[in-house]
Task: structure prediction
Amino acid sequence: MASDAMVAYDNFKGYMGDGTIDMDGDAFRSGLYLSASNAGTRGVGTGLLADLTSEHANANGYLTGGIAIVSPTYTEPVAGTWMFDFADFAPAWSASGGSIVARWGVYWDDTPTAPADPLIGFVLMDDTPADITVTTGNDLNWTLNASGVYRLSGAET
Result:
């Protein structure tokens, strides 16, 4: 199973540009959303976590509200190119008492309170597209691209 690259939500660049999202100073989270969710819609609502529907239920090893992103960094690895990255989720979630089923992985900024929880981007967890199912006793490991979660470069970005 291969996942797609992260897709930025439409309001993300605006929130980053106006300082609502501080890529190298804020705390970030990631959560799982079901196939019925609107999480895969770039222009969802006002670009806030509260706009999303159908997060995975608080069950089977998944806690609603997702998990904290560990070791986020925002660096300039090459002149004129900025990269947002963080540690791989391994394991991110361990299924117990039933399966964890999801289609979308979502990243958001957990620090701002007004507006609260601006969205960064989403990932289609299986590019077939299909739901992923993690059965009891197994882990969902989420390995990120070695070149970072996303990169910003050039005037056309």
